[in-house]
Amino acid sequence: MHRIGVFVCWCGTNIAATVDVKAVAEAARKEPGVVFATDYQYMCSEAGQALIRQAIKDNALTGVVICSCSPRMHEATFRKTVQAAGLNPYMLEIANIREQCSWIHKDIKEGTEKAIILARTAIAKVMLNKPLTAGESAVTKRALVIGGGIAGIQSALDIAEAGYEVDIVEKQPTIGGKMTQIDKTFPTLDCAACILTPKMVDAAQNEKIKIFSYSQVEEVKGFVGSFKAKIRKKARFVDENLCTGCGDCTSKCPSKKNKNEFNLGLDNRPAIYIPFAQAVPKVAVIDAEACIKKKTGKCGLCEKVCSAGAIKYDQQDEIIEREYGAIVVATGFNPIKLDKYDEYAYSQSPDVVTSLELERLMNAAGPTQGTLLRPSDGTHPHTIVFIQCVGSRCDDARGKSYCSKICCMYTAKHAMLIREKYPDTDVHVFYIDVRTPGKNFDEFYRRAVEQYGVDYIKGMVGKVIPHDGKLLVQGSDLISNEQVKIDADMVVLAAAIEPDPTARSVATMLTASIDTNDFFTEAHPKLRPVESPTAGVFLSGVCQGPKDIPETVAQASACAAKVIGLLAKDKLLSNPCVARADESLCSGCSVCQNVCPYGAITYEDREFRIPGPKRSEIRRVAQVNEAVCQGCGACTVACPSGAMDLKGFSTKQIMAEVDAICR
Amino acid sequence: MPVKTTENGEFKPLIVAFCCNWCSYAGADLAGTSRLSYPADVKIIRVPCSCRVNPLFILRAFQRGADGVIICGCHPGDCHYTTGNYYARRRMTLLFSMLDYLGIERKRTRVEWVSAAEGVRFSEVMNDFAKHITELGENKKLEDLRCKKSLD
Ligand SMILES: Cc1cc2nc3c(=O)[nH]c(=O)nc-3n(C[C@H](O)[C@H](O)[C@H](O)COP(=O)(O)OP(=O)(O)OC[C@H]3O[C@@H](n4cnc5c(N)ncnc54)[C@H](O)[C@@H]3O)c2cc1C
Ligand code: SF4
Ligand code: SF4
Ligand code: FES
C-alpha cells in the first residue's frame, strides 16, 4: 500500500502569487495513494524540512512529492531530508511548479490548474518509484596530466604538493610547451626561461611526479576514480636512465641538416639532439628519419662517443599501463598554419615571419643568438611592420571566428622590445582593435605607443609584395581614411592560435566534449569552468580557450584544486539511476551494447529453467556495469525485447506520467 | 478525457514535452527564471536524455488525447552523453515517417534542440509549437479510433 505525502511550497510569493497552493494541496489529497498533503511558506528552510520529516514519521509515508522549484535546484536537499526521516532518498519526486508554472503564467486560475496537473504527474510517478542505493567505488589516488606545457606543469606541481602522485604525459621530447620558445613575457618583460625552467626542474625532481616525455596516451578506459590508461613511450633510441645530457653525441653527428623544430625551422639540428639546453628531461633523442645508422646501418658515431653507453639503436616503443583517479587535459595550442594567407607573402619571403618565429629570432638561445637579423640576408631590419589578427576574428573559412586574445599584448611586447634594443628601427602595427583587458595591460600598450613611439595604424593590410629584397606593405588607415604604403624590411604576422591537432582525438578518447573550434568545453561556462562534462576529467590551460600565462596558471591551479578534492575522497557514490536488463526477457541480441556510449554492457551466460524434457537452457544475457553506466537510457529504447529498463526513469514511470498529464 | 476548451469555448490543446535533463530541461528552467512565458498547455516530462524517449511514450500520449508532442534535447554534438540526441533524432525521424499511417498527423510532433543557455529559445519554441497545434485543432483523427473506448 502506498502512503504518499504531498508538500506544496509557496516559495514566499514566488509560487503563491500565481498558484493557489491550498487548492493544489487540496486536489493532491484526493489523488489515490495520497494520505497527507499540506502547504508551507518555504519547504527548503530548516522549518520546512522539519515539517516534512515529522509528516513522514507521523503518517508512515512511503513516498514524498514536493511541489516547489526545479529539481535541478533542491532535489539533492530534499533527498537528504526524506532520508533523515528514514525513507529511501529515491522515494521522492519533485513537481516543478515554480520555473515551469508560477513564474511563467500570470493568471492564477491557469497557474493553479497546471500546478495540479504537475502535482498529480509527480504523484503518479512516485507511486512506481523503487528504493535505490547508490553504488560505491574506490578512488585511485593518482592523477594523469596530458600535456606538459606550463598548464600541465602547474597542475601537476599543485597536485603533488597536496601529496598525490601525478604522471605528466608529454608528446615532445621535453616538457615546457610553447612557453619554452617565448623570449620575454608581457606585461612584466621577465624572461620566460627564467620563470619557467625552475618549474620544469621542480616537476622533474618532485618524487610524486613522473614525467613520460616523448609519449602519448593511447587509450583510456574506466570512469571517475578508476581510469585505466595505456601510454605509448616512443622509442628515442637513447636510454633515459643512462644518458647524462652531456651532448657529446650531438656535436659529432654527421647528419646535421635537419629542421630544428624548437627554432621553428629557422636553423638546423643534428639527427641526435637535445631540444634545448634546459630541456627536461635532458636526454638526447635520435630522429630515426634523419639518422644514418637507422637508415643505412652504417655510422654509429654517437654510440662510439657516448661515454655513458646510452645509445640504443634497437630500442622499441614501450606500452605502459597505469591507473588514475582523475585526468587533467592540458594539451595547449599551436599557431595556425598560414598557407591560406598568401596575400601576406609568408611562403614567398623568409622575411615574413610569425610572431612565434620572431620570439626565436629575438631569443639569446635562438638561431641568431638574440640579434634581430633578417632571415633572408642576415642584415639588420630598419623598418618592421606587424600585422595583427591574421586569421583571428575572421569571418571566412580560412581563419577563426574568435579572438585569439594574446596577440595584441605580445605584439605590443615585440614592438616595444625592438624599439628599445634598436632605436633606429621604425615599427608600425596594423590592428583592428587593440584589446588589453588585463592587470597592467593597457598601461603596457600605452607605454609602447607613448614611450617607445610605436606607430599604431588602425586598419587592415591588403597585400605584402616582395620586391628587390624589400617588402611593400599596402594597407589602409581607417582613421585618416587613406591608403598606406610602407617599404618594410620585415613583416611579422600575429597568427591566430588553435587547439593542438590532437584535441579531437583526446576528447573522443575521454568522452569529453569540444566546441566547434576544438577547444574543450567546460561542464558549466560560469560555474564549473575547470571541469569537463565528463566526471573525473578536468581542463587546464589553452586547451579550453585562448589564454595568456597568468590566466593559464590560475586555471591550472584551480583545476588542481578540483583534482585534489576528488583524490581526497576514499569512496565515490555513483548515480543509482542506471540501466538494468530483465534477464528473463533478454535475448542476448547485443543491440544495447552497440548503442551504449560508455561500453557499460557485457554479456554473461545464465541457466534458465524451461518447460519440457530439457528442463533448463543456457542463454546469453546482458549485464550492465553499474559503475560505468551513466544512465542515459539509450539502451532501453534500443532493446527490441523490452528487457532493458532505467531505474528512476523506468518505462512504467514515464508512461504513468504521460497518462497523468493526459487524464 | 482532458478538458480542451476555455470558458469562452476556445480550443486549448494538450501538449506533452519531453525534455532532457542536461540541456532542454535546464533551458526551461532558465525560461522560468527569466519570466519568459509560454502557454500553460505545455506540460514537461523530464528524462535523462532525449535518447530515453521511447516511441511508445509518444504513441501513448496521442492515444490518451494529446494534441501535440515535442521532444527537446541538447544541440547536436552537445549531448551530455555524447551521442544520445543522434539516436533520438534517428528514432524520431523513423517514427514520424510512420505516424500518418497510424492515423496521427505527423505535424503534431516536433524535435527541437535547446541548450541550457537558451531560455529565450525555449519559450519561443514552445510558443511556436503551441500556436501551430492550436491552429491544427484537436487531434480528432485518433479519437475516432475504436480502441479509444476500451481505454477509458
Ligand atoms: C608568439 C607568442 C607569444 C606569447 N607571449 C606571451 C607573453 O609574453 N606573456 C604571456 O602571458 N603569454 C604569452 N603567450 C601565451 C602563452 O604561450 C600561453 O598562454 C601558454 O603557453 C599556454 O600554456 P599551455 O600549457 O596551456 O599550452 P602549451 O604551451 O601549448 O602546452 C601544451 C603542451 O601539451 C603537449 N601536448 C599537446 N597535445 C598532447 C597530447 N595529445 N599528448 C601529450 N602531450 C600533448 C604539447 O606538446 C605542449 O607541450 C604567447 C603566445 C605566443 C604564440
Ligand atoms: S647513428 Fe644516427 S644519430 Fe648516431 S651519429 Fe650516426 S646519424 Fe647521428
Ligand atoms: S543507460 Fe546509457 S550508459 Fe547505461 S547501459 Fe544504457 S546506454 Fe549505456
Ligand atoms: S542529454 Fe540532452 S540530448 Fe542527451
Give the structure's gist in a few sentences.
The complex is a heterodimer of chains A (663) and B (152). Chain A has 18 helices and 34 strands. Chain B is built from six helices and four strands; from the N terminus they run βαβαβαβααα.
Question: Whole-number radius of gyration of chain B?
Answer: 15 Å
The outline of chain B comes out as globular
- N- and C-termini, Cα separation of chain B: 8 Å
CATH topology of chain B: Rossmann fold
Q: What structural category characterises the helix and strand content of chain B?
A: alpha/beta
Q: How many strand segments of chain B?
A: 4
* Terminus-to-terminus distance of chain A: 23 Å
Unreliable parts of chain A: none
Counting DSSP E segments of at least 2 residues, the number of strands of chain A comes to 34
Q: Major sheet of chain A, described briefly?
A: 5 strands, parallel
CATH class of chain B: Alpha Beta
Instruction: Write out the CATH superfamily name of the largest domain in chain A.
Output: FAD/NAD(P)-binding domain
Fraction in beta strands of chain B: 15-25%
Shape of chain A: globular
Uncertain stretches of 5 or more adjacent residues of chain B: none
The averaged pLDDT of chain A comes out at 95
Summarize the amount of helix of chain A as a percent range: 25-40%
